[in-house]
Amino acid sequence: HFGSSSTCFQYGHLACDLSIRAMPASYNEAVYRMVSKWTETTRISFVKDAKRPGTKSYERYQSYSQARYVGEALRLGAKPEDLVHDYAKKYCKMHKDQRVKVPEGIMGEEEKAIFRKFLKHMRGPSGCNMRKVQAKKLKALEKLKKLGIDFKDMRGEKNGQETNDLQALRLAADCAAGELLAEAETAGRKISEKDVMRVLELWAFRKNESRLNVLPKGKQWVNSDTLGLIRDRTGKFIVTAPTRDYPNFMTVLTRYLTDRRPAELECDFPFTTISLNYGYAAKRHRDSGNLGPSMIKAFGKFKGGQLNYWPDDDKNTSLENLRDEDKVSMDLSQGLALFDGNRAHEVDPFTGERFSLVYFSIDKYWKATTEVLDSLRERNYSIPTEETMALARTLLPAPRGYASGQSLTSMFGVNEKPKVYQWIESQESDAAPTVPIGRGQVRTVQTVQKPQQKEVPKSADLKALFMGVCTPARGAEPSSPAEAAAGAAEDSPKPDATPKCADLKAMFSGAAPAGQKNAEGARTPLRSDAQEEAQPSSTPPRKESLLGGKRSMLTSGKKAKKAKTAEQGTKASKAKGAAKEVAEASKEPAGTAMEEEEEAPRAEELAKETLPTAEELASSKFCPAEAQKGVRWSSLLARALQVAVTSPEASIVSLSNTFRALLHASEDPLNDLCQALESLMLPAADRLPPKALREALAQWGTAKAGNAEVLRALAQAFALTRPARASAPAEPRTFASEEGRRAMLAAMERALARAHGESGGRFEPLLRALLADCRPAELYCRCGPRCGAALLPMAAQETRDLEVLLSELAGSAVLVEQCYPGQRLQVHKSAAGSLAIFSGVREVAGTVLEEALMSALRESIQARECIVEAVLQRDAQEAPEGVLQVFDCLWQDGRPLVRRSLRQRRAALEQVLRPCGSVRIPPSEEFALEDPPTAEVLGSLLEEAGACNCRGVMVKRLEREYEAGCTSSACYALLRPGA
Fold first, then answer.
1. What torsion do the CA atoms of 306, 307, 308, 313 make, to the nearest 10 degrees?
2. CA torsion sign, 123 to 124 to 129 to 134?
3. Do 946 and 976 contact (CB within 8 A), yes or no?
4. Does pLDDT of 838 surpass 60?
5. 302-304 and 842-843 as β-strands: parallel, antiparallel, unpaired?
6. For the ranges 381-390, 527-536, 555-564, which has the lowest average pLDDT?
7. How many angstroms separate the Cα of 609 from the Cα of each of 602, 604, 639, 644, 659?
8. Percentage of the residues of the chain whose pLDDT score is greater than 70
C-alpha cells in the first residue's frame, strides 16, 4: 500500500527524478493523496475522447484510455503526470467497488516492472513523496506572497544552476531567516534549534554527485550543499553561489554556532565553510582538504543517525580494518560536538528526517582574497587565524593509532586528555559539556546550569543590518538624553517582531543610512567617535560586500514604482473628475485644468526644495554632500538637463553631479537612480514624469548625442563617489594621484558600458552592483551575460569611404562577409532544450520565425546551451519561410564568449551550428595581418554584395571582443553608394 509506508518522507529536498515543474500547483492535495494510494491492480476507467485532437497528449491518451486498471494504463504509455492530471480533471475515474480483483494472470512481469517505475516517480529515488514536495512548494510560495514578493520577478536573478522551484524554496528560506534574525535581535536572544529547523525545512538541495567519499552503497548522489569558501577547478578560492545569494539563511546557520561559544574555547570556533547535509547516512570516510577541527550538529526528528568517530585514527589503518570497539558514538541531536574531520568517521543508518551542519576550515584558506574573506565575515563566518586555529587544535590531542596497546598514562591511572567534546544542550538552558574519553567510552556528565557569559558582540550594527536601524555600539554612553530615550525604546521588547514592508528593504539589502527615519518615526542618530571607540577591537565594523547579495527583494525600482503608480493613479482619477467639472464651467480644456491642478502641489513642494544652482552642477568642484536630504530625483534631473541644453559641453558633468547628489541625499538611491535612467534612456517611461521634467527632457532630447553620455555620467558618479554602506554614508573617493583618478574614471566608463550591454540594458541589476561598491573588474562578473536573457547587440560603424576604412583597419587581421538585409535576431537555446528568439531585448519567437524555420533551427543547433546572432532574410526566393544567416556565437555550454576574440567565437560557431536547409553560416573571407585587403579587393567584394541585393560588406577585426550595446570599432559596415 503506497500511502501507508513508514519510510521517511524526505520533506526537505527537491532533487528527484520527477520534474515538479510539470505538476501544476493548482492540483488539490487530495488528488495526490488518492493517486498515491493506487496499486497496479486498482480498477479505473477513462472518459472517451476527453482530449482535443492535435494536442501533444492526444495520441497517448487514445492509447492508454482503453486500460481497465493502473498497471495496464502504464503499460499502454501513461505517465505518472498523466494519471494525476486526468484524475484531477475527472477524465479518469476510480471504480468505487474495488472488491472485484484483477485476475493474477493478467498482471505480467512487464506491467509490474512499469508500476515499480511509477512508484519511483511518485516517491522519488530517495523516498520523496510527490504531494509532500508539492505542499512544501506551496508553503514556500505562500511565504513569498505574504512578504509581497512576486516570484516571477526574481526568476531572472537566479544563478545558472538553480531551477525555478529550487530558487522559490531557497528564497522562502532566506525570507524566513530574515524574519527570525529580526525577531532574535529585537528580543535580544540567541538563535535556537527551532529557528534553524524553520529555515532548513524550507531549504531545497541540488543533487550532489561529487561527494564520492560519503556516498552510501547504492547511491549515485546525495543531498549536500557546501556553503562558504571553496576552491574551484582552477584552484581559485571563491564563495559558493548560495552563500552569496541567500545572506539571511547563511547568517542563521553561522549565528547558531557563534551564539554557543564553548567555555573550553577562548575564541569563537574558527571556520570558513559549512557542509549542509540531508537525508543520508555518510559511509565511513576521512575528509580531504580539511584543516581538521570541525563542529557538527544534527537537527530534525529521527531515530538512529549517531556519529561514529575513531579519535586515535592516524591513517595507518585502512578504513575497513578499523574496529568497532575503538569508536566513539555521539547522538548529535543533543548538542554540538567537536571532532577532527581528517580522522575516520561515519553515520549510523536512521529513520526520519535528519539534517546535519558541519562547520570546518578548508586548507590554504589564507590564499583567498581579502574581498572573498570579507564577504564571509559579513555572514558571520569566523575566519580562522593562526592563533584561533591553534586554540581549536589544543582540544583535539594527536592520534596514537590503533596498532599499539594501552597508553602509559592510562596504565598508571593518569587521566587522559579528552578525545572529543560534545556540549549537551537542554531545551530550557545552555548546559555543561559531555566529554567522551578513552577508547570506545563516553563519560556522561549530568546536565547542569551554565553561568551566563557576557557575549562578545559580533557586530555593532546587527540591528541595522536586519531591521533598518543604526544602533550605537554596546557599552557606549548616549550622546544626548534623546538618544538615551530612543535606545531604551529600542531595547524594550516589541509585541510583534515580524518585519513590516517598510523594514524589508533594510532586512534584505542592508541598513538604513544614518539620518534616515526608522519604523517608529524617529530619525536614526549618527554614530559618534566615542561610540566607534567603544566598539571592541576584535570585531571590526561590518563592511559592504564587494560580491554582495544580489537579492535586495522588495526594494526594486519596478516594485516601488508600481506601488507609487497605483497611489498616484487614485489621486489622478479624483483630480481628473474635479478638473472636468472646472473645465465645463469655465469652457476650458479638461487636460489643461488637470495639469494645473497636478502641478500646483508640485510647485509648492519644489519651492521648499533647495536645489544646486546651474553653475554648481556644471562645475567639476561640485560638493554632492551639501545636497538637501530627501531631495526629489526629478527636481535634480530637471535642473541638470537645463544645464545640458544651455551648455551641451557640460552635459556629462551636470548629469554626473546629479547622480552623485542622489547617492548622498536620496533615501532610496536604487529606486531614484533607476527612474532617472529610465527617463533619460528609454523611449517612453512607464510613468509620466512631472511637467517640469517633461519639458526639460523634450528640450534635451533634440540635442543629446545618445545614451552613451548618460552611461559615462553614471560611471563618473560611481568612480568619484563611494555609495552608502551599512556602517557609513556615501563619501567621495580619494586617489593617491591624478593619474590614478583618471585611470579609475576610464576603467569605470569602459566596464559600465560593457556591463549595461551584457545585462540587456536592464538598469536594476547594474545599479545593485554599483551600489554594492563593485570595482570595474567585478562589474563584468556581476552583470555578465546569461543564456535566456537578451544582450544588447553590438552595432557597427558605418562608412562609404574606402580610404578611411583602410586607414582605420591598418595593423589588424580582418574578416569580410556580406551585410545581409533583414531583421537581426538573437537565438538562445537553454539546457532544457527550449529556444528563445529576441529582437533587441524583446522576445519574438512566436511572431517572427515560421514553424518550418524553427524546426530547421532546432535541428541545426548541436550545443546543449548556446546564444547565437543571426539575420533573418525575408526575400529569399529559394526559401519562402526565410533564411537565417547565423554569424556569431556569444555563449556555448555554460561559457560566455563575449570576452573571446572573433576568431575564437567563429570557431565555436562551427561547433555549435551545423548548417542545414534555411539555417546557414554566411561565407566569409579572412585577411591576415601580413596580407591586408586592398581597395581593389574590397571594391570587388562590394560589387558582389550589390549583385546579391546586400547593403554592403561587414569588415570585422578578428582579434577584438564582442562589445555588447556599443557602436564599436571592432566592426565596420562598408555600404554601397545609395544603400
1. -170
2. negative
3. yes
4. yes
5. unpaired
6. 527-536
7. 11, 9, 12, 21, 17
8. 67
CATH of domain 795-975: 3.30.470.30
> For 485-534, how does the pLDDT look when each residue is reduced to its tens digit (9 = 90+)?
444 444 444 444 444 444 434 444 444 444 444 433 433 343 434 343 33
pLDDT at 134: 56
Distance CA 119, CA 113 (A): 10
Phi and psi at 747, nearest 5°, equal -65, -40
Nearest one of 199, 372, 205 to 272, comparing CA atoms? 372
User: In 844-931, at which residue ranges do the beta strands (DSSP E only) sit?
Assistant: 866-873, 883-892, 895-896, 919-920, 924-927
The DSSP symbol for 971 reads E
Pairing, β 355-360 against β 293-299: antiparallel
Close Cβ partners of 537 (under 8 Å, ≥ 6 residues apart): none
- Cell readout for 231 is 576552491
Per domain, the residue ranges of the chain are 2-133, 136-200, 207-302+331-342+349-400, 572-608, 613-782, 795-975
Contacts of 970 (CB under 8 A, 6+ apart): 794, 902, 956, 957, 960, 961, 962, 963
- The neighbour count for residue 255, using CB atoms within 10 Å, is 23
Distance CA 466, CA 510 (A): 7
Residue with cell 555600404: 975
Nearest alpha carbon to residue 78 among 114, 120, 38, 25: 114
Any idea which of 176-180, 583-587, 671-675, 701-705 has the lowest mean pLDDT?
583-587
The predicted structure's pLDDT at residue 123: 46
Q: Which amino acid is at 495?
A: P
Chain CA centroid to CA 180, Å: 21
Beta strands 335-340; 293-299: pairing state: antiparallel
One-letter amino acid identity for 461? D
Name the residue type at position 971: C
Handedness of CA 749, 752, 755, 761 (dihedral sign): negative
C-alpha cell at 821: 538585409
CB contact set of 942 (below 8 Å; sequence gap of 6+)? 952, 953, 974, 976
Position 828 scores a pLDDT of 92
Q: Is the pLDDT of residue 581 over 80?
A: no
Burial of 814 per CB tally in 10 Å (0-12, 13-18, 19+): buried
| C-beta neighbour count of 444 within 10 angstroms | 9
**Chain segment 18-49, per-residue pLDDT in tens:** 333 334 445 666 777 677 778 878 889 999 88
For residues 902 and 899, what is the distance between their CA atoms, to the nearest angstrom?
A: 9
Name 154's Cβ contacts closer than 8 Å, sequence gap at least 6.
167, 171, 551, 553
Cα 747 to Cα 800: distance, rounded to the nearest angstrom:
32
CA–CA distance from 235 to each of 8, 231, 271 (Å)?
A: 39, 5, 19
Q: Is 656 left (phi over 0), alpha (psi -120 to 50) or beta?
A: alpha
The beta strands (E) that lie in 585-738 are given as 721-722, 731-732
Alpha-carbon span 112 to 851, nearest angstrom: 41
Tell how strand 842-843 and strand 835-839 pair up. antiparallel
- Torsion, Cα 59 65 70 76, to 10 degrees, reads -40
Q: Which residues contact 68 (CB under 8 A, 6 or more apart)?
A: 43, 44, 45, 102
Residue 374: how many other CB atoms lie within 10 Å? 18
Q: Which of 436, 490, 433 is nearest to 187 (CA)?
A: 490
Q: What share of the chain is helix, strand, coil (3-state, %, to 5)?
A: 40, 15, 45
Identify which of 815, 829, 920 has the alpha carbon closest to the alpha carbon of residue 872.
Answer: 920
